[in-house]
């Protein structure tokens, strides 16, 4: 797309005056420069983490828990499993509440509660991640102590507005006449939504959920005083749980080189996972068309 | 002409907000007939058609007054459930709109299957009968399980007719069903209508006056929300009583 547009410009510039040709080349160069500036941070992050972290990304990294401070070796198994566990729990909240909210906003635009729900969803989208952590802290941690569940709840809250918005948008892409066809058959509206409209929008909703997961997977702030972290592997959601961003935070602020190396390897893994999720989301969306 | 009409419209007015789209319409449709609604764009014919199965319930600001009786029962009567009412009235839309994620078979029986009927033998019988009724069976019998969106536009529209027939509607509303189709597909659907009226009653909105003349027994001419003239199709096209009808059918406007 980009290259064909540029080549069209350069082909027609053969007939232009020298001054216009110079200006045209100059502008083209500036645009290319701006584009590079957009991708540069991503490339820099990736190269930096690759250089610093790829050495620590070995078998131990995936199979061992962190070594005691000052000792060498160890891995982030506790953080990898903790992240997966909490993201799975967060998805339950994020998907159930988020998809329901998206359906409500898209399919019941004349409901008296619609403007209120829309506003709540928009405000929720703007709430800082650390505030979500504070809410989960107040709701759960103060009563039951630090736990994976509290962390998952904070992450789930963060997912909700993202899922709401994408669900609403993809539902609105399903043509009105498909809904009318269902209603004209004498099907109640909820059946039309659940069995006809929702399946038609499934690919887009899955994409939205994956993007929401990728977004919250890297959050450390809401986990600091909810999941808290755990040097051991733990699947019990009522106990403190580790997560990749928590280990990155601890390792990066540690005085020991070994811990810093683990943190950078953890960051690299996180970036790779987010990258893979985004690619998968794109793939699913393309399958739909 | 003494039979009880399947559909009676009595003093029907339809408003979008403060704008009146249909005024004072009185109309009777006989069982087993094909009735055409004709008129220029914006004359209210589609608006009137969509009032019959309460499609306006979904449009913000739309309001219907007067009485529409389906087999003697007021469609807008107190306590009437629009969902139950729509089950008795089939509808085919301007653009073919098969359910995008369903197979040919699932589309045809969707009205029954989604309403909870699981008996596969019965669903298969209904599918075959409906597809035969829509003159599509021979073309799709070997690919019932393939996605409905893989059919051609004309086939999709006949699939939508089959889907409407599957729930055995007492009356079938067709909103310009051939306007998005090529001439060959249009001819197939027109041929179909004379067969369909043996099992149901058809009300068809059309912009094509030749189509109205070919397929319908009675014709209603709408203009600016008024039902100007209603009568036997031959009479409407050859000796209309109203000079506005004559002007329209002879192509002087619209």
Give an overview of the whole structure:
The complex is a heterodimer of chains A (289) and B (254). By secondary structure, chain A is mostly helical. Chain A has two domains: 55 residues, no CATH class; 227 residues, MetI-like (MetI-like fold, Orthogonal Bundle). Chain A is built from 13 helices and no strands. In chain A, helix 2 packs across helix 13, helix 6 packs across helix 7 and helix 12 runs antiparallel to helix 13. Chain A is flat, with a radius of gyration of 24 Å. The two termini of chain A are 19 Å apart. The model of chain A has no long low-confidence stretch (mean pLDDT 89). Chain B has 254 residues and is α/β, with parallel strands linked by helices. Chain B has a domain of 70 residues. Chain B has eleven helices and ten strands. Chain B has a six-stranded mixed beta sheet, sandwiched between helices. Chain B has a four-stranded antiparallel beta sheet with strand order 2-1-4-5, with helices on one face. At the A-B interface, helix 8 and helix 9 of A face helix 2, strand 6 and helix 7 of B.
Q: What is the succession of H and E elements of chain A?
A: HHHHHHHHHHHHH
Shape of chain A: flat
Strand percentage of chain B lies at 25-35%
CATH architecture annotation name of the largest domain in chain A? Orthogonal Bundle
Approximate shape of chain B = globular
Number of helices of chain A: 13
Largest interface, per-chain counts? A-B, 20 and 29 residues
Rg from Cα of chain B: 18 Å
Class by alpha and beta content of chain A: mainly alpha
Biggest pleated-sheet summary of chain B: 6 strands, mixed
- Residue runs with pLDDT of under 50 for 5 or more positions of chain A: none
The ordered H/E elements of chain B are EEEHEEHEHHHHHEHEHEEHH
Mean pLDDT of chain A: 89
């Amino acid at each position: 797309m980009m290259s064909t547009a540029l080549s069209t410009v350069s082909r027609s510039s053969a007939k232009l005056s020298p001054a216009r040709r110079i200006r045209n080349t100059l502008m083209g160069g500036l645009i290319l420069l701006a584009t590079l500036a957009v991708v540069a941070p991503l490339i820099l992050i990736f190269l930096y983490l690759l250089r610093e972290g790829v050495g620590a990304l070995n078998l131990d990294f995936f199979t061992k828990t962190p070594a005691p401070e000052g000792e060498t070796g160890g891995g982030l198994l506790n953080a990898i499993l903790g992240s997966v566990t909490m993201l799975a729990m967060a998805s339950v909240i994020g998907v159930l509440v988020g998809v329901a909210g998206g359906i409500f906003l898209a399919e019941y635009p004349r409901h008296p509660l619609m403007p209120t729900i829309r506003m709540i969803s928009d405000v929720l989208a703007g709430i800082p991640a650390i505030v979500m952590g504070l809410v989960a802290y107040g709701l759960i941690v103060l009563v039951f102590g630090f736990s994976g569940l509290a962390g998952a709840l904070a992450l789930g809250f963060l997912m909700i507005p993202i899922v709401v918005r994408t669900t609403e948008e993809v539902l609105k892409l399903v043509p009105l006449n498909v809904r009318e066809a269902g209603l004209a058959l004498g099907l109640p509206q909820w059946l039309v939504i659940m069995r006809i409209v929702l399946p038609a929008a499934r690919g887009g909703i899955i994409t939205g959920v994956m993007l929401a997961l990728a977004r919250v997977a890297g959050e450390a702030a809401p986990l600091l005083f909810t999941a808290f972290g755990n040097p051991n592997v733990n699947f019990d959601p009522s106990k403190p749980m580790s997560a990749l961003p928590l280990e990155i935070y601890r390792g990066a602020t540690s005085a020991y080189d070994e811990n810093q190396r683990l943190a950078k390897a953890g960051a690299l893994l996180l970036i790779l996972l987010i990258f893979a999720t985004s690619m998968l989301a794109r793939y699913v969306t393309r399958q739909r068309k | 002409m003494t039979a009880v009409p399947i559909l009676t419209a009595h003093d029907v007015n339809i408003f979008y907000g403060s704008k009146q789209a249909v005024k004072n319409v009185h109309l009777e449709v006989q069982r087993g007939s094909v009735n055409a609604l004709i008129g220029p764009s914006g004359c209210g014919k589609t608006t009137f058609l969509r009032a019959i199965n309460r499609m306006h319930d979904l449009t913000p600001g739309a309001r219907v007054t007067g009485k529409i009786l389906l087999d003697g029962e007021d469609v807008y009567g107190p306590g009437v459930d629009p969902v139950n009412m729509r089950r008795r009235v089939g509808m085919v839309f301007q653009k073919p709109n098969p359910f995008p994620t369903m197979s040919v078979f699932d589309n045809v029986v969707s009205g029954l299957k989604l309403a909870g009927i699981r008996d596969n033998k019965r669903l298969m019988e209904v599918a075959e009968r409906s597809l035969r009724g829509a003159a599509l069976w021979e073309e799709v019998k070997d690919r019932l399980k393939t996605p409905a969106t893989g059919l051609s536009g004309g086939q999709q529209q006949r699939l939508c007719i089959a889907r409407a027939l599957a729930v055995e509607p007492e009356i079938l509303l067709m909103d310009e069903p051939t306007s998005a189709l090529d001439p060959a597909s249009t001819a197939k659907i027109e041929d179909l209508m004379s067969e369909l009226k043996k099992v149901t009653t058809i009300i068809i909105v059309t912009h094509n006056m030749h189509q109205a003349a070919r397929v319908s027994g009675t014709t209603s001419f709408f203009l600016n929300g008024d039902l100007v003239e209603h009568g036997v199709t031959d009479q409407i096209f050859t000796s209309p009583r109203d000079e506005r009808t004559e002007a329209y059918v002879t192509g002087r406007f619209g």
